[in-house]
Amino acid sequence: MRLIEAIKEKYGYLDPGNTFINAYDFIHAGGTPVDALLYYELFCPRFEEVQNCVLLSSSLEVDGVKDSFAELLSTYKEGSMSREEFQQSVYAYAYEEILFMFNDRDCSEEAIYYLAHLIAGSWRAQLAYQFPQYSFEIVVKPNKPNEHELGPMVCIQQNLDHIK
């Protein structure tokens, strides 16, 4: 499904003459700056550097999470955890399940994966700009069967070889 087709399906009432040719026509007809700001966090979330690890700020906002992360880092530095275990544990602070962000999840799988890849591209550029000293891979992963049914995840995979 092309983006314009999905937009016309949901917001066709804004274009009774069926003359709009792109998303900008719909933004002009029915969007507001506040609407744009609402979705800003999807594409440009806040990232936070914690002891040389770059994490999503939203994952650190829950009480006690920063302490849990500090304990995880300490356990790794003491040698009680392998690098692979540490890397996997860090990923828990560096991903978003795309459909989890929405109450209305009525959308095609193709559209949600397209959105996930757009978000990943934005995160990739933002991280490269904000943290040029680190190496990242931003990937879109499907959720595993029998786990959450919330569609793809956008994941930050930071090279953590610099942490000893």
| Proportion of helical residues | 40-55%
- CA-to-CA gap between the ends? 46 Å
Strand order, biggest sheet?
Answer: 3-5-4
Share of residues in strands:
5-15%
**Low-pLDDT ranges:** none
Q: What general form does the structure show?
A: elongated
Domain count: the total is: 1
What does this structure look like?
The chain has 164 residues and is an alpha+beta fold. It has one domain. It is 44% helix and 14% strand. The chain contains six helices and five strands. It has helices at 3-11, 23-30, 33-43, 65-77, 83-91, 109-130; strands at residues 47-50, 53-56, 95-97, 136-141, 153-158. A three-stranded antiparallel β-sheet has the order 3-5-4, with helices on one face. Strand 1 and strand 2 form a beta hairpin. Helix 4 runs antiparallel to helix 5 (83-91). The radius of gyration is 19 Å and the shape is elongated. The mean pLDDT is 85.
Provide a compact summary of the structure.
The chain is of the alpha+beta class.
Features:
single chain; 164 residues; 3-stranded antiparallel β-sheet; 6 helices; 5 strands
Secondary structure elements and their pairing?
Layout: H1 3-11, H2 23-30, H3 33-43, E1 47-50, E2 53-56, H4 65-77, H5 83-91, E3 95-97, H6 109-130, E4 136-141, E5 153-158
Antiparallel strand pairs: 1-2, 3-5, 4-5
Helix pairs in contact: 4-5
